[in-house]
DNA sequence: GCAAAAGTGTTTGGGATACACCCATGC
DNA sequence: GCATGGGTGTATCCCAAACACTTTTGC
């Protein structure tokens, strides 16, 4: 094949699983399909990868066009997830999809299209293709990553309270954490610095604000779980 | 692009990083290139992925043809690694390569081609493309995987002694482990069973033989490091 | 003074680490 | 009996887990 037959590559596509936290619920960005196949179903934002562009370039182009979200400017963390190749994305033939996972804060504010929406991961609508599987895979990866890296930073604003940080962990991991143990551990890990600002939120005792020492991916010395 | 221009996908290729242990050294399977580009350099076994075959099917076909190794029959573990897309694999244009990692025992016995050889990972020859980077990535992944799964099983024969098991870990992780602590931990993890057989190896005290309880991927309850 | 969220310490158990000697065999 | 690799136990330290009350503020 490599030597004599004319080489025909499969279709190459890219898809993004974009997470944000809203109201302490983990949400995924979905697009309502306006055309066949799967017209009317919800799908991950994605599209074709042409010759001459990298998968990340293709993703940037395609996600911006379909949703208004810029995966570089509007997200705090992006990583390649997995390449799925068992799906007939298009009735005409076999397609290979390189998927990415991204996390950000307030990403919904960048949506420009009316058929685009964040859905909570635990109440997803009917999904096109194998996108349910891809989201599940991404969620697992995110969960694992939370326990041995500082990935949460991607979901939080620049400053935040310890309670907000704990609620973020709880939302993504899907289980409650002990308040005192959580604070002890997070502080002993040295991931965050206390700022000298406070937040007077509603009407009660103000909370200290913290910031991440390094708002970029770091591996933890001890795992958090 | 998705709508009007004629769609031209990039070239799609697959590459395999196949590990084995030999003489307690971690080795990678390499192919000496007989043609341009990179003629004379060593490269990972790989090739083109045509339309209509999955990446794993393409890999199976290509690796068997170039080396004689059957990635399903001759390896104990295979997983997808990462998709690299920044490389001009071919002077003619941009190529995307889906890479896999595989591990086996005595894989060298299946080599049928004279330009194919296992090299120790710590003394690799001049490598084609970005294959040095891919091997480094695979080695890191393997290392991480060893600490939270039972992946070592893929490198060992059906029965083995505790010393052999320890030496395997040490070879892959690249550092010595304490003998008593290692045995305590491995046994307490319940990954292996003691068989009633012994091995009289050279001429000294015979060693008990062990086997893996489950010779397939499992996640450890406590991490090994 | 009361409602609401912020903040704070101690005890206990288990696993990780460090460390050195005796045992079984073939020659 | 000796050379070689196989096999074993204990003490310490640190981290994880469990657990409840006081403080600060606005009203």
Greatest interface by residues involved? A-B, 31 and 31 residues
**CATH class call of the largest domain in chain A:** Alpha Beta
- In the CATH hierarchy, the architecture of the largest domain in chain A is Alpha-Beta Complex
* Radius of gyration of chain A from CA coordinates: 20 Å
The number of strands of chain A is 9
- For this structure, the quaternary state is homodimer
Which of globular, elongated, flat, extended, rod-shaped describes the shape of chain A?
elongated
Number of helices of chain A: 4
CATH topology of the largest domain in chain A: Nucleoside Triphosphate Pyrophosphohydrolase
CATH superfamily of the largest domain in chain A: Nucleoside Triphosphate Pyrophosphohydrolase
**Residue runs with pLDDT of under 50 for 5 or more positions of chain A:** none
* Biggest pleated sheet of chain A: 7 strands, mixed
Strand content of chain A: 25-35%
Order of helices and strands of chain A: EEEEHEEEHHHEE
CA-CA gap between termini of chain A = 49 Å
